[in-house]
Amino acid sequence: MIYEKEKRYIVPFDDVPSPRAEMPEISVDERRGNFDEVETGFPESVAVTEAKRCLSCRRCLGCALCWAECGVEAIDFDMPDEVLELEFDDVIITRGQDNAFSAIDPAWGYGTYADVITDLQFERMLSPTGPTDGRVVSPLDGEIPARLAVIQTEPEGDENHLLSSVVLGVNESILALDRTEGLKITLISPLSPDFKERFLADAEKIAGLSMVEGKAGSVQRSGEGDPLTVTYSHEGADHTETFDLVVLLTKPVLSSETQALSKKLDKPVQ
Amino acid sequence: MADNRVLIVGGGPEGVKAARQKSEEGAQVTLVEKFPSLGAERIPRDRLIRSDEGFINPDLDKVRNDSNIHILPYSDIQKVHSGEGAYFARIIQHGLRVDNTKCNDCKACIKVCPVNMLDDFNEGLGFRTAVDFYNPVTAEYNIYKEDMPVCQRSCPLNLDIRSYVGLIADGRYLDSLKTIRDRLPLPGSIGRVCPHPCETACNRQYLDEPISICFLKRFVADVELNEGIEPVYETPEKTHPEKVAIVGAGPAGLTCAYHLARMGYKEIQIFEALPVPGGYLWVGIPEYRLPKKLLQREVDLICNMGVEIQYETRIGEDISFEDLRKDHDAVFIGAGCHKGLKLRVPGEEEYEGQGIIDCVTFLREQALNPTEGKGKLIVIGGGNAAIDSARVGWRMGFDEVYILYRRTKKEMPANPWEIDAAEHEGVILQYLAAPVEILGKDGRATGMKCIKMELGEPDASGRRRPVPIEGSEYVIDAETIVPAISQGTNLEFLPQDHEFSLSRWNTFEIDEDTCQTNIPGVFAGGDVVTGPDIAIRAVAAGRNAAMGIDEYLRSK
Question: Which of B33, B135, B94, B76 has the alpha carbon at shortest distance from A94?
């Protein structure tokens, strides 16, 4: 399992799970009619055992293995941070690369199934500088998918988002189809009127991509080794279809830092 | 054009585009990006593309080679404020910890690095090590060393938890305590009462359970106490002559005094209305959670640094606020929230003091002059003050103790372990009920008319709003009724015509960085700014204010 928390990733490892220490207390009978302290404190051995459970969160701790290994002595742990005090006449705040995780409904299987990824992750996968040098592979088993679904997860409300996310989904499909032989992509979204007017005709001409005007419901896997099952409604009927990789079109969320800066300076985020 | 300096925050496509535009308009541009590499090669979201034009950004090379654009990668904006038509920013550019002019791209460092975390440059697809090159094209090698782990970041005071827990694991208890005291002068007290947001954030919970951080803090404080060690908090040789007044000897005021003393301020006076120190820690948190003796010792250690506390001195009565300002170079207000809010139901005013007593007064009187309880006690509310009042009442000897709360246990804002402890001790919790009227006879409260509630739609707080069920009124008898619905500030110590800007909750509005109010030289922090909140946040405010006061006095 992989855990995400405020843009921090941790990878669990093989420490033997151990419950945390319990605080010893005086009994309820001893408490009535007096104000004696209820919790009596950890004995030394308990405190040390408890402290040893700390993972130190396995960030760089300056273990210096890299420093020892580096032949050209390029590693310098003491390289200082630089503090710059600067004055400006204007500030422009943009959303930057620091995408906050939007809360994704568990119904979409994100976080549960490794082969359900977000549009932003798919973008990195398609990038020549990304983790797979631009190849489309399933993070579950490293296989090249034959059937891929791109589905809209937040169809309600924001028309601008609905438009830009589907355009991104179509563009990602164009790149994926170009790089993957025999791939079939199904894009499921309510499709905004704006999208239909400006882009749908061109999108429907793309070989290998089928545009489905509808609403996806859930992503599930019936058993280990099975493909993913996507449920969706289309033209008043419910459908289920199986896929090897599912890409979720998500609504971008500004990082809390960007939001705070925007609020503090009373400047919109561009 | 020196008069057009533009700061652009964020090195994504929007930021890169804005940088190019502003440079073309003749501006001097500073482009700040969090990651070690700009990330503008994206897929367009406003037009359909051909398969060969996905990750091309023609602006990027222009921006990289533009002498009017200063790119600051791997940088964070630490502080920014505006004034007189300009913006002032403090930007931290993190050291890469790798000299890229020497690096030969052999990747040996990556092979040996034991850190294995998801690759944040790739949105969590795949793994990376702490040493990484981010963008393979530009290959900026760097070692990612977080400024602080999640526990430390979630602590309002940013205590270096990883260090002090690690020192306990090594058996170095007093070193651990010293690390804690670098920021927190009340480790034994906070180690008992803190609701520990650090443990809520602790990554270990994903393996099994979070580390018991708070109690470990208490453990090292107790080691010193049990071994009879009396530490001396050091003050520097170089001192400052300015006089600082602190209103209130609560966690905010004490911490402010502690840090000012550590900076070399000799003339620090705390004015405390009560005969005891600690503020709410003394008169709000009951003895069974925090023994007064222990709190007193932690206060004494601060006083030993030369901090003076004038007890039973109420500003606005014994000394006017204006005199306080005149006699001191800076003032810190840490007066807390010591006013229990009213239920606003009929009968409440009539029987006030005659069976009706708000939780702040109730807890304070028990802390200062304990009495015994008799008959039935009803506490109204769902926060920690309600639980404390009930558990105190149970210890005072009330025959039956009830807590009445208008929502359910799930929505109760009190710490779950406190609710459990109250139930365990025999306090009876009645959910989905609200007071309608206080009933009385011969000038004394005798009971309360209540109404049953049900949960409706979520309100602004995200909790489901309780709605009265018509016709479900019922009466409960009680000798003592303690409303514990919330607390507010009492700002009567300020002159009538004061010019402080206050929020609509009657709290001070301050500059977040310095804790200064709108009146220069007057600072505020703790509950008097935030409303009723946790002690560690007041401690953090006291420390921030000390730094703000020092900055103010040193630039005077």
Answer: B33
